[in-house]
Amino acid sequence: MYPLAHRTLIECCRNADRVTSKYAPSRPNPNQADPPVSHRFAPDGPSIMQINIGDHRSPVAGYLPVPPHLRSRLYWARTRARLIASKIPDADKYFLHLPKRRSLTELLADRSIWINYSVLLGGDYGEATGYDQIAIGSSAFRVGRWTVLATVIHELAHCDGASGRNTNIEAELAVLACGLGKRSEQVLSDDPCTPYDPRTRG
Ligand SMILES: [Zn+2]
C-alpha cells in the first residue's frame, strides 16, 4: 500500500526559525478564538483529503493522530484551501506545473492523502513523506491557523512532486500562488503580516 520508496522520500519543511510570528493581516491575532462551529467539524466527504483523528495508522514513524484540541484549525485550513482552489485560478495553475501535474483541487479531493501530527519536527512547521503523508508540527499550531494553512499548501506542493532540496523554492511558491503572500516580498523583503516567506527553501 505504501511502497518503501514513498516512505523514505521525505520532503521538508517550513521552519519556525525562518518564519516567526506570522499571520495574515485580516486575522491580526494568531491566538484568537477558533472559527465558528459551523466551520469546525464538517464530516469528511466522499472526496476530500483526510485528517487523521485516530482513524489512520501512518506508515511513517512519528506521524500521529491530530490531538483533539488542534483539529478545528486543520478543519478550518482544509476548508480555506478548498475555497482558495475554487476562487483563485493561479492556485490550480501553479500546482499543474509541478512534477506530478496534479491540481490543488485534485489533491484536496484525494482521500489517500492524510494530514497527521508530529512532535518530531523540532522547529519545522511541517513535513511530507512520499506523496500521501503530511505531518504538521506543534510549532505551526503555535503561530496560528494561517500558518497551518500555509504549511498544508506547502506540503501539498511536495505531494505534487515539488523538490525538498534546500535550495529549492517550488513548494513555498505554491503558498504565494494561493494568495497567501505578496509578489513584492520576492524583491523587497518578507512581510511578517503574510504567511508566505520568500526566504523559505526546500
Ligand atoms: Zn518544504
Summarize the structure in words.
This protein has helices at 4-8, 37-40, 71-87, 89-96, 104-108, 138-143, 145-159, 170-177, 184-187; strands spanning 10-12, 50-51, 114-118, 126-129, 133-137. With 202 residues, the protein is of the alpha/beta class. It has one domain. Helix 3 (71-87) crosses helix 7 (145-159) and helix 7 (145-159) packs across helix 8. A hairpin with a 3-residue loop joins strand 4 and strand 5 (133-137). The protein starts with a helix and ends in a 15-residue tail after the last helix. It is built from nine helices and five strands. Mean pLDDT is 85; it is low at 1-8, 18-31 and 35-42. The protein has a five-stranded mixed β-sheet with strand order 1-4-5-3-2. The relative contact order is 0.22. Bound molecules: zinc ion. Zinc ion is lined by residues 11-13, 154, 158, 164, 171, 202.
Question: How would you concisely characterize the structure shown here?
Answer:
Helix content is 36%, strand content 9%. The chain is α/β, with parallel strands linked by helices and 202 residues long. A hairpin with a 3-residue loop joins strand 4 (126-129) and strand 5.
Cofactors and ligands: zinc ion
Tell me the total number of β-strands. 5
Q: Please report the number of helical segments.
A: 9
- In spatial order, strands of the major sheet run 1-4-5-3-2
Radius of gyration: 15 Å
Sketch the major β-sheet: 5 strands, mixed
Shape category? globular
Number of domains: 1
Strand % is: 5-15%
Give helix % range.
25-40%
Low-confidence stretches: 1-8, 18-31, 35-42
Q: Give the mean pLDDT.
A: 85
For the record, give the distance between the C-alpha atoms at the N and C termini, rounded to a whole number. Answer: 27 Å
The arrangement of helices and strands along the chain is: HEHEHHHEEEHHHH
From the helix content, strand content and strand pairing, which structural class follows?
alpha/beta
